[in-house]
Design goal:
Layout: H1 3-18, E1 23-28, E2 31-36, H2 48-60, H3 67-71, E3 88-91, E4 96-99, E5 115-116, E6 121-127, E7 130-135, E8 140-145, E9 152-153, E10 158-163
Antiparallel strand pairs: 1-2, 3-10, 4-6, 4-9, 5-8, 6-7, 8-10
Helix pairs in contact: 1-2
Length: 165
């Protein structure tokens, strides 16, 4: 296997980890790649960016990979300083569909930069045709909304990051 092929495979693995893809299979003629990653949560990753990386890796790899080489995991990189470290996460208490406003066309309950108080409604999660108001469990400033309107969400999935203090 060429050095460039190994670099391309590492780049693909890094990309898949960044996108939080749990499993990946590629089968093109004599090239077969199967990757599985263990993850804390398993959100669905968009497939459009993956389609841009795969052709480049497949075109540069001219030798078939063995299953042991394909499932090998590269050495973990040193973690970068996380600017969001120390932020509180408001997580979904139920499975359902996220809505950031009380009705279509209405302004959002909260936006990044808004100040929230403990007990304030920050969104609605629809579950089994019931609209459940989700309240903030802390007081602070909304830093980031981690989901989009109409997105299906899981139990325990982070919805907002909040800077307390």
């Amino acid at each position: 296997m060429k050095n460039q092929d190994i670099q391309d495979l590492r780049q693909l693995i890094e990309f898949l980890k960044e996108q939080e893809v749990a499993e990946f299979d590629l089968d093109r003629g004599d090239l077969k790649i199967r990757l599985k990653f263990s993850q804390r949560t398993a959100p669905v990753a968009p497939l459009a960016p993956i389609a841009q990386v795969v052709p480049a890796v497949a075109a540069s790899a001219s030798v078939p990979l063995t299953s042991a080489a394909a499932q090998a995991t590269p050495q973990p990189a040193a973690p970068a300083a996380d600017p969001d470290a120390g932020l509180h996460l408001i997580k979904s208490p139920i499975v359902g569909t996220y809505y950031g406003s009380p009705s279509p066309g209405a302004s959002a309950f909260v936006s990044p930069g808004d100040r929230v108080e403990k007990g304030q409604v920050v969104c609605i999660v629809e579950a089994m045709k019931l609209m459940n108001e989700i309240e903030s469990d802390v007081s602070g400033e909304i830093v980031k909304c981690m989901v989009t309107n109409g997105q299906p969400i899981e139990f325990g999935q982070p919805l907002f990051s909040v800077r307390t203090a």
